[in-house]
Amino acid sequence: MNNGEPMSGKPRLKKIEREVVDDAEAHEAIIILWALLLIIAFFLSLLRMKVFSPYIPTPQEIYDYDRAITAFIVIAFVKLWMAIINPLYKVVSIKYFRTYAAAKESWRFFTHIIWIIVVIGGLLYIGGYQNLALSIGLVSAAIVYVLQVPILNAIGWLYVSSTKLYRIGDRIEINGKKGDVADITIMHTFMREINNWLDGDIHTGRLISVPNKEVFDSGTKNYTKASPYIWDSVKVAVTYESNHEKAKKIVLNVIKDIAGDNMETIGLEVLKMADFPELADLFITKPTAFVKMAESSVIIEGVYSCSAHERSKMHSEISAEILKRFAKTEDVSIAYPHMHLVGDVR
To answer: What is the CATH number of domain 154-222?
Structure first.
């Protein structure tokens, strides 16, 4: 065990070699694809030079798109070259970086620089008013290919900013990541994480970043949009022998005492959350308790409203007070799994 410290010596090199092999296998299909495209491009170039003219006539389109074919040959060659040296670069660069991940990041930066040079060179070569549309198309395709993730992140940022999907300070959940929005940049949304390994809506202390493109990949849950209030419930199981009416009344009274002020305020807030008038009539605006029969107990669920940021605190206070009052009531008992033996046990 390395206790979180970087590996050194032969074990570290063996791990790097395995990762390099995995990367090489992942790039094998890409290398083959671009090798085939490069062969096709060279074949078209040979047709343009009339190498096969005694056997294959050269179509006029080959001459019309002469510069485009040359540019494609360069792009295919550069892509093939980078796919081949990718694992070799990481083997060499690992000597100058602390981690394999840092070496991969340096490779990403290196490839961006290469593609910028290729795009600028292609623009200068294909440029001119006569081929302006073709130049724009090729440059745009190269930019989209190289920067597709950053572009999607930027588009996600524009979408979030224009639609007000969430704002700084909102409590949101994106693709399973939940927290309070601390910042929204062009590339990422930063959140102060809640939940994860902790029960309840409690901050973990971590600042997590979510790529803005994830707003398109999965649904976004906003707990505080339009109104800071959400609904929560406390479920308590009592025995079938208990006084169910009294238990329900205790739950309602506890909710009134602790969450009563919020329930009075939410009457106005529901109008902000109702997307159509009829929906406002369906929201719970006063302390409510539901009774459900289970296999070995009666479930009483008390529903109340609270601030999204205080849900855990409110839930804890209500639960503690219900337990306290149940303990003082003789004909109300909490149900829990237990075994009751009947007869003579030998």
So the answer is: 2.30.30.60
